[in-house]
Every structure is written in structure tokens, then in C-alpha cells.
Amino acid sequence: ALNNILRKVGFKEVKHNPQTMGIATIYSSSK
């Protein structure tokens, strides 16, 4: 579910990486 949201935001290459997930979540929230 989270990967789909990140892909919509613009993260096409989303891997199971806690750091990437955190940064992407903060980025999407700020946006």
C-alpha cells in the first residue's frame, strides 16, 4: 500500500529500505 503511494508521488524505484521509506514519507507529507 505504501509503495503504491510512493510511486504516485514520483518514487518509481521504491525498495524495502527504511531510510528511503522515511524520507519519501516526509517528502510526500511536506508536499
**How much beta, percentage-wise?**
under 5%
Seen as an oligomer or otherwise, the chain set is single chain
In whole angstroms, how far apart are the ends?
19 Å
Shape: flat
Order of helices and strands: HH
The number of distinct helices, counting runs of at least 4 residues, comes to 2
Name the descriptors.
single chain, mainly alpha, 0% strand, 2 helices, 31 residues
Give structural notes.
With about 30 residues, the chain is an all-alpha fold. It has one domain (about 1-30). It contains 2 helices and no strands. The protein has helices spanning about 1-10, 20-30. The protein is flat, with a radius of gyration of 8 Å. The termini are far apart.
Fold blueprint:
Elements: H1 2-9, H2 18-30
Short précis:
The chain has 31 residues and is an all-alpha fold. The protein is built from 2 helices and no strands.
